[in-house]
Design a protein that fits this description.
8 helices; three-stranded mixed β-sheet; alpha+beta; single chain; four-stranded antiparallel β-sheet; Butyryl-CoA Dehydrogenase, subunit A, domain 2; 3 domains; about 350 residues
Length: about 350
């Protein structure tokens, strides 16, 4: 949220002396800006407010129920509210309030599965300050021209980076599996290839949204248009849907390769198995070659015990005796065709 709020100050606050001085202080002291733009009772609608700025000459007062404030106890806070108590819910302004002028009363505990993964508690915010701390541009322009497109591009770029890292780790894992089993394609390679294609589609979507914002950045009418707002919302929703799906498929590809490689019956190649397993594989391959090139056979012969000659030979070998074999039969008990 800090980067988004700083972008709003740079784009819309530089004409005001107070915000120019604050930005210089921000760069020098490396301050962090919190966000209290959300409000309880509006259903998550950023463009409506219940609380209002109460002006008293050159000073103002604000009391707001904020369901979440990013690291609000420790930093300067950005707050959004109505211009005046008698203003419309959509007639809003953005205010920068100092920590020293603000009193925060917690209204709940931290929920890691809540609105944000950071330690962002809900507070009742009470603050006062000079009217110079109110941005001179209506919040409707700030939201459409800077806050929403910047936040959507920033969030989707972050999700793209996380997803790319997950795919890179899976690619390294699959490559390591391929090196251990030369000549065999790892089981997760196909899933990984499909996932890489989805990642490239997500990358094109994110880069296209960023290019769209940069292309229209100096055109306020285009930024305020409904078409641009729809494209930015689609950017966020598409990336939010693709990122967890790609990570899920990456984990599945790695899990399939791990499971099959750890199962001797399913995935281990002869070179990667124990010596006795390799010998067994060689014996099986020899038997297949012999069957493929051996003469054609007619029928199995039965010995006096009633068992097949192969079973009888195996029993004799286990007892340490040599198994007799007629001259016109092969070693497996099959009679050769004349």
């Amino acid at each position: 949220m800090h980067q988004i709020e700083v972008a709003c100050l740079v784009r819309h606050g530089l004409p005001a002396p107070f915000f120019r001085d604050y930005l210089a202080e921000l760069a020098e002291r490396q301050c962090l800006i919190a966000s209290a733009t959300s409000e309880a009772g509006v259903g998550g609608d950023l463009r409506r407010s219940i609380c209002a700025v109460q002006r008293h000459g050159t000073r103002f007062r604000i009391r707001k129920q904020a369901p979440v404030i990013s690291y609000g106890k420790r930093r300067t806070t950005f707050s959004c509210q109505r211009v005046a108590p008698d203003a419309a819910p959509g007639d809003q302004v953005l205010v920068l309030v100092r920590k020293s002028d603000t009193r925060l009363a917690p209204t709940g505990e931290w929920d890691t599965l809540g609105m944000r993964g950071t330690r962002s508690l809900g507070f009742t915010l009470e603050t006062a300050g000079a009217v110079d701390q109110i941005l001179p541009v209506p919040f409707a322009e700030i939201a459409s021209q800077t806050m929403l497109p910047t936040s959507h591009v920033l969030w989707t770029s972050l999700w793209l980076g996380l997803t790319s890292d997950a795919v890179s780790r899976a690619r390294a894992f699959i490559r390591a599996e391929a090196r251990r089993s030369v000549g065999a394609v790892p089981p997760g390679a196909l899933r990984l290839a499909e996932t890489v294609a989805d990642l490239e589609s997500m990358r094109a979507t994110v880069h296209g949204g960023r290019a769209d914002f940069e292309r229209n950045r100096s055109d306020p009418e285009a930024l305020a248009g409904i078409g641009f707002a729809i494209r930015m919302n689609n950017l966020k929703t598409v990336a939010a849907r693709m990122a967890p799906e790609i990570v899920r498929r990456v984990r599945l590809a790695s899990a399939v390769s791990t499971a099959i490689a750890a199962t001797p019956v399913l995935g281990r190649t002869p070179s990667a198995r124990r010596p006795q397993c390799r010998a067994h594989d060689q014996q099986r391959s020899c038997s297949r070659r012999e069957r493929r090139h051996a003469p054609r056979y007619t029928r199995r012969i039965e010995v006096a015990t009633g068992c097949s000659s192969r079973s009888n030979d195996r029993a004799r070998v286990q007892r340490g005796a040599a198994a007799p074999r007629p001259a016109d039969h092969d070693r497996r008990g099959w009679r050769l065709r004349p």
